[in-house]
Amino acid sequence: MSAPAVSIKGRAFGDHLLLALVILLSIVMIAPVLWVIGLSLKDNAELMADPNSVFHAPYTLKNYINTVGTSSVFIWVRNSIIVSGGLTLGTLILSSLAGYGFARLNFPGRDVLFVIVLFGLAVPEQAVLVARHQIFSMLKFHNTYQGLILPGLSAPFGVFLMTQYFKAIPKELDEAAMLDNAGRFRIFWKVLLPLTLPAQATLGIFTFLGAWNDYFWPLISATKKDMFTLTVGMASTQTNFAQSEGIGFLMAQAVFAGAPILIVYLFFQKYIVTAVSGAAVR
Amino acid sequence: MTADIEIRNVSKQFGAMTVLDHLSLSIRAREFIVFLGPSGCGKSTLLRMIAGLEAVDSGEIAINNERIDHLPPGKRGIAMVFQSYALYPHMTVRDNMAFGLANIGVPGKVIEARINEAARILEMPHLLDRKPGQLSGGQRQRVAIGRAIVKEPKAFLFDEPLSNLDAALRTRTRIELAQLHQRLQSTMIFVTHDQVEAMTLADRIVVMNNRKIDQIGTPMEIYERPATKFVAGFVGAPAMNFVDATLDKSGENVTARFADGISVQTEIASSQLTDGKYTFGIRSEDVRIVAAGQGNADGVVDVLERLGERTLIYARLGDGQQIVGSDAGNSRVAVGDRIGLAFDGQKSHLFNETGRAWHAREA
Amino acid sequence: MVDRLAMTPTATLAAGVRAPTADIYAPQWRNFIFVAPFLFFFTTLLLFPLLWGMWLSFHKADTFSSGNFVGFGNYVRLYHDKVFLQSIWNTFYFVLLTVPTLALIGLFLALCLNRRTRTAAVLRTLFFSSSVLSVTIVTLIWRIVFIPNVGLLSTIYGWFGATAPAFISDPNLAMVGIAIATIWWCIGLPMMLFLSALQQIPQDIYEAAALDNANRWQTLRSITLPSIKRTFILVIIIQIVLQFQLFGQAWLMTRGGPNNLTKPLVLYIYDTAFRRWDLGLGAAASEILFILILIAAMAQYLVTRSRGDQA
What we know:
The complex is a heterotrimer. Helix content of chain A is 72%, strand content 0%. By secondary structure, chain A is an all-alpha fold. Chain B is α+β, with helices and mostly antiparallel strands. In chain B, helix 2 packs parallel to helix 4 and helix 3 (108-121) crosses helix 4 (137-149). Chains A and B meet through helix 9 and helix 10 of A and strand 6 and helix 2 of B.
């Protein structure tokens, strides 16, 4: 919490200055978004003639109707959903299993392997890009869903998160279950996994968001227009601003693409924030 | 169901450290036996070895004459109540109790019947559909016991189950545990560091110290004829008085001499004792308060503790050592008074340097 | 059911044949099955490509063949490649622009918004919401804002009768423009990290300071800031690692221009490996990037390790 309210007269000015700064920053944060929304609600021709027309009526939903009419966007959304959903599901399954294995089970080389996985956290995407691209070329995985989903499954973050979470559950629960004649998998499935739901939610949302917004890998792996994810697809329409279908239309696309994510964010705020600050505080 | 348990020459190491050193013990069927000892003495480890949660490094454990130390925990026919209860938080009480039986394929009706019977015995049928998070500490403990009962095990293991309860609840639960034992007539092994729990619940107590068993006996045996100085000091409150003494073996029975010329006539045969340094031990209830000059020793009263039914008098001898004695509850003694202490020679104990104990001959 | 068990030395001492004791915590091969699926992907798609990438960097490779072994040849070429050196410089410049700014603004916001009022909560949400957008949308927004004559910036400058700086096309300002967009995008994370650090400072310290008549500035300087020193270092290092990997904003806003002045290392790699298909060279460049990031990441690991002792 901030310092307790001990009132001193001189604070009033300091307070107002700080307030002004915060307001200024808030304006900087929100003004571009409002601008974009405004642009999306204007007719393209009108905008070309007079940019300032953004500030007054008439407003129109024409651009949005056209966006909906453009089939590509929906294909891209579908791809994004499949890829992000698939990666999230895969990550949750793999990370939970591996997390349990590292946290609770003993097998030869366990500690060494865990350290290696930990080091994997430091490897940036770029260091493995070129080689991955080659591998997938050989396997003919480019422009496929598996090509977009599989690389993400190698990320150690989820395993690290789940391992820490499993370790925090008291061992007595496992022991009681062993005395209850539960085998190792049963203990995982029926006793421990249900207790990890908060971590699953956090990891799931974090993974989904990351996959949805991913740009680099889908850019180089999905080169055919109908395999684009939403992020890549939208970027591809950005190229020629001047000759494009019109600023209003472009902005409508942006809003169309960004709004769902923002809505999801507003709903799942708690988990996203926990994921982000928890992950870095590791 | 009940069983006798045989522990033969069992040892355990954690790395370089020996945690249990060639222990042997026979537990009879239907017995309520308590492993008593301070933290780190190995009692929990021994319990966990019986349960199968720790490996036996050498030696054997057998139930009803069949070796079990090579079996996994679930297959030993044993149920355990953990100190923290270890209830499954996301399952209802009913499911908690059913889990073990469901895992080995016991028919639903049988499970249902057993759960209801256990709930009846423990007076908790109204709790069956709640989750552990909604229960109080005492209720959770019942569920933990209920989970053990439904398995109809050959033996019950309790790992300090009363430690997490508050004082009033602890006393009540102690009594209920004793009643449970009477009712189920099962072998029960109970681990604790609290000597009151041990004394009140046990048929026999196994006093453990420093990785070894110091004594196995009934509560009264442990209390009246402790085998070692450790046992003597650990059991009984307030702790036994220990005074350094030299021995006068001139008579048939030993006379103990303290510094300051105080002497106490014991009923311990002189022939049994070799020479050396000894410690004299006597319990506070065997030290009576008399007028100054009329007992074995005189002392000045340091502290008084009134307990209601008796008063503990902490008196300082001439050489500075402190002795605790007992007087009536309405004793008139005051701090600073000079009093006499009368030691009951028949209840005296002698301990040598290694802690071995001698007592008066049996009557 | 007897598992594969830990064989103890004393088993050989016992007379006759006896089944070894059960140790539920002994290592067993069959427990591998839980970590195997993940390890499969980890090895094939992370470890192996990592090593292969290094191997590739020592070859003259393209998509059709691994080519000839050229030793450090690729690295030498990089050393002499002005564009590569420019891109390293660009990356450092960019990191210098963004990281301190992100840390300071993030800290400022955390200090101001660390209250339980509804306004503060709303503002916290606002400042974090940009972080959930994709780079595509962010760059779309900021390109429109920066567009000469028509964009938001120009419009606002127009109200005061001035011309807006050309953040995209001006060689001196292009990187700054990208930095502004990036700061707008990434401010949420530093703010959140500082917030959680501030919330871990016990209230009693502030009360003691108040009793000691410390004014706000003194409290800030002597109590608050030292308490979050570790977090500050953490934020800096995380941001360094993150911003080193700049790609999308540069590619979409300026294409690395004008004159390669906004071309970061990752864009160079993209260009080299996936447009010119000079895979060996691209791999070499990415190894250089990896080394630079590794140093920063190592520092982060060490800081969090000792922070863990403190926490």
